[in-house]
Amino acid sequence: MGLVVPSTSMSKPKLIYFDAPVSRGEECRLALHLAGVDFEDARIKSADWTAMKERMPYGALPVLELPGRPPLAHSNAILVFIGRQHGLHPADDFEAARHEGMMQHVEDLRAAVTPTIRMGDADKRVAREALVAGFLPAWASHAERNIPGGPFFAGGTVHVVDLKLHMTVRWFIGGKVDHIPATIFDGCPKLVAVYEAVRDHPGVKSWYAKG
Ligand SMILES: N[C@@H](CCC(=O)N[C@@H](CS)C(=O)NCC(=O)O)C(=O)O
């Protein structure tokens, strides 16, 4: 069991996530890239996951490994850590907590939608239509009214919270999530502005230009 054993054999940070440019792993990759950190981008194939799951601190990904430290898990902890070290999270404790509140709000959405991913289509339709009728519009309006700034969450500067909001809006806005309309966030201009500002950020563009 390698649960809390510091990594001694590595020379640079390693971000472990599944081999897909999505969700909790991609927002951590973006944070590391925007922070200018030279990191190993370890992409796990689904077929290899079962064998390594129990070696991860909480049995899930993403996990950030740092030289000489135990592995760090939970996307928000990873993002806040990176953000604090590299100016992508507020130095002011209250402002930081406000950002973390919104980051938790994103996790609440994932907790509501993720269980529908593995449902058969009939159950998925029922569950997602219920989310579209209730949870998702409420989630979106709560997000909207708690974004103090624009175009980013806190105004003109990107923070890790923006990366998390971006990944969430991006999930739905392409219209590829069955039974959830691409227009689900149309009534939330501040939320959509965060998505667009991150999409258009030069550092984010350079990440995707790497291919
Ligand atoms: N609270 C955790 C949730 C982690 C999580 O559920 N990760 C998913 C991928 S996004 C996962 O590892 N799924 C595979 C599994 O649980 O076996 C976080 O924020 O990182």
Question: What would a concise description of this structure say?
Answer:
By secondary structure, the protein is α+β, with helices and mostly antiparallel strands. It contains 8 helices and 4 strands. Strand 3 and strand 4 form a beta hairpin.
Describe this structure in words.
- The chain is an alpha+beta fold and about 210 residues long.
- Helices cover about 55% and strands about 5% of the residues.
- It has helices at about 25-35, 45-55, 75-85, 95-115, 120-145, 160-175, 190-200, 200-210; strands at about 15-20, 40-45, 65, 70-75.
- The protein has a 4-stranded mixed β-sheet with strand order 2-1-3-4.
- Helix 1 (about 25-35) crosses helix 6 and helix 4 (about 95-115) packs antiparallel against helix 5.
- The two termini are about 35 Å apart.
- The model has no long low-confidence stretch (mean pLDDT about 95).
- Bound molecules: glutathione.
- The site of glutathione has 10 residues, from helix 1 and helix 3.
